Amino acid sequence: MLTLDGSKLCAVLPTGHYSDHRGAIADKIAARVGVNTRFEELVVVSINAERGRVMVSAKPALVKAAKAGRIVTSSREVTTGMTLIGWVKKLATFGAFISFPGSVSALAPLELLSDRYVSAPEDLLQPDQTVIAYVSSVEESADGNKIRVSLKRSAVDISATQCIDPADFLLGYFGELEGAAGEPVLGEIGRQTTVKVKQKLPYGVVVTPADESAAISAEASGFITAEQAKDRIDECKEGALLTACVLDVDPEKAIVDYSLRSALVSGSAEIGAATPAKKGKASKRSKTATNGDISQKVLTDALHKKQETPVVVEVVKEDYLVLSMPALDNAIAFAMTKTYNDRSKPFMRFKVGQRLSGTPVRIETNKRTLVLLQSEPDTASAATKKNDATAGKRPVKEPVDSAISFFEDYQPGLVTQAKVKSIKGTQANLDLAANVKGRLHITELVDGPLDAVVKSPVDVFAAAGVRVGDTIEVKILGWHDAKVYKFLPITHRTSPLKTVIETTIRPSKMAASAEADDEAKLMSWKNVKPGRVFNGFVKGIQESSGSEGAAVLVSLGLSLIGQLPLLAATNSYEVASHPARYFFPGAPIEVEVSSVDKKHRVVHLVPHGPYIAGVDRSIASVDQLVAGTRVVAYITNIASAVMFAKIGAVVQTAASGSTEPQALLVQGKID
Length: 671
What we know:
Layout: E1 2-3, E2 10-12, H1 24-32, E3 43-48, E4 53-57, H2 60-67, E5 83-92, E6 95-100, E7 104-109, E8 130-139, E9 146-150, H3 168-178, E10 192-201, E11 204-209, E12 221-225, H4 226-229, E13 241-250, E14 255-259, H5 293-305, E15 309-316, E16 320-325, E17 331-336, E18 355-362, E19 370-373, H6 382-390, E20 415-424, E21 427-433, E22 436-441, H7 457-463, E23 471-481, E24 499-504, H8 507-510, H9 518-522, E25 533-542, E26 551-555, E27 561-565, H10 566-569, H11 573-577, H12 579-582, E28 588-597, E29 602-607, E30 630-639, E31 642-647, E32 651-656, E33 664-669
Parallel strand pairs: 2-4, 12-14, 22-24, 27-29
Antiparallel strand pairs: 1-2, 3-4, 5-6, 5-8, 6-7, 8-9, 10-11, 10-13, 11-12, 13-14, 15-16, 15-18, 16-17, 18-19, 20-21, 20-23, 21-22, 23-24, 25-26, 25-28, 26-27, 28-29, 30-31, 30-33, 31-32
């Protein structure tokens, strides 16, 4: 709670609004905030007059927008084509709700979150994350405009905000990380120094500083990753003194990242294990190949000229990259792995040794040199580009489609080939390669009602042109875990043998974009509305339990199953007594959603349109009940010698009787 200057008003400043950044840096800022902490620049983002509550934000991007007069105060002010600064309010399976100052809100649908496939919003976004949004549509309504926004990189032009610079996110992060004055120890980054090997591990080398002339404390803990040590791994013996390049320093935790790469270290011979480093002599602290006098001038020139230069990834961290710049004396620099609109994990997008391109944007004493990455890679050799492109990818064995080389090639939206291995229940099992499995669900065969006589699931697939042993053309919808039916994010690293690729052959989807296929994955009891009609397929029969009658289970989508109560399915005692004979797995059936039981997560169905041959429809209303009509009913209760029974989908009736209350199927005659 804050007290605002010049008034007696109190305001709420959520911790997520301290910064434009999330994660460790946000926690660091929050730890510094206490009683009497003063915030010099705040933006009022909402006022609740009834509750007397004011909410403010310290997000630098919002502060800049307010100063530039780029804040909207009402949804009526928002028009299509605007670029606005806001924050993530809430995440849902179908997208993200974005808030803007003035209590303005918008929806960023899943298909508008990124240019690449996104399985779930949380793969990219977090609550309270600052975002820059492009207004894609505005639908006017009496209670305020309904706004849809895009967070795609291809749609969002940062300069269109007229207040945010492309480098602001990068500069803001390291400004908050380092403080206004920086740290003297950060001046050691890029320098060559002496380290002593403490322990050699399979994944790297633990070292301690051994240079008395360096600003790095002798108590600091150092580490050299396996990638950075491989050039001189044979020299990494316990007790050995080595010349290393300082890549990064964490002043608070006293942790230092080093490199032994020959490109970064001149004179790479071991310094004598028995001779300690002496001040000014054996330290090997070169200033000619790193951020010393020469490279400082080269860097300054590049900064003033806004010179784009090749960079090489040396270390990948959660929030930022450590880079070397071969064309600028191999100076060490830093770049972000995140953006305003993308906080996805960086470890699949960036690899050590990867070549990129960037422009220096900050060179200051006792601070890290910062580089703004460009969207396009540098002009590396074709061989290097090929190696970078295939790094970390998993080869496939004997692919059905000869154009496929890696498991990562099976991206959502790709049209490829698969061989039908078997048909079991309501799915066809596919082989896309010797080590890659797929699935074609029965609901992904056709768009409309199936115009064929079928007696089994095999007949359904055959009618759609899918037979065991055939090679068919399919479209990739996504991946799911082989054991737990859950769609996996695009960045997943689950083994191909433990992953099943979901496919479709529905004509409408084969011709549609990848974004249009997301509905199938997102369809669940949460977003299905009563009145929706499905061309479903019988999955099986759910037996009666207690007071609940039996039901026909109907597959409506990849992971959506509805229940058609037997009383709603038929008025034939023969059919209701032996439902499996008539409602066999795979039987096509057109149904309508009658209701959704959110407490028990059940979608209830009633028949709709063409029906299963040989099955009489059930009683749908009281108007259909006339004296002499024979009906099928479930006894639901008995009270005072009166037996209550349920007829059809909605009809309750009563008759004299004396049986125990249970879901007992009977047939009778209306008196």
